[in-house]
Amino acid sequence: MSDTIREIADRIHEIREISDISADTLAQKLNIPLDTYLRYENAQEGVPISTLYEIAGILGVEMTELLTGSSPRLHNYSYTKAGEAPYIERFAGYRFQSPAYNFANKKIEPLLVMIDPEENKKMALVTHSGQEFNYVLEGRIKIILGETEIIMSPGDSIYFDPSIPHGQAAVDDQPGKFLTVILHDKGDPIND
Question: Could you give the domains of the chain?
Fold first, then answer.
């Protein structure tokens, strides 16, 4: 695992402990098995973007705090110059950049996702609440949405209900890049 994944896992663990929430309770709130959650928290497996967002909502922090260790502070606008947004590598071949990382209280989460062809072998379908928009910038991207498979080219877009199991992969043995914008329902605070 990369250092970044270890740092994210450590932040999740620390904030969960400070919040006096058990790993079991958080796993239940995320609707995932405890052993899956513990693999995330022990940096044995990269946390899917959607799950990071849900964890942040449940723990009452911004996703940026989990990604960077800093709380976003900007309220009126967020201007990010090329190359300044933090890169997060979930695992080899799948990385993303959060261009609005420093804007507080976001209602949407825009992410620039880069996928190398080897990611095709690891693509796992995920689900989350809210809505999602993907816009292909480079390469060709295969999106699986439930039983449907769509090959998208630069300029193509899709807007969908992410409660349907979905995943993306680069095709044609070429890397792909797409913008995803995720609107999530915030996680409910844990009151037990």
Answer: 3-68 (1.10.260.40), 87-183 (2.60.120.10)
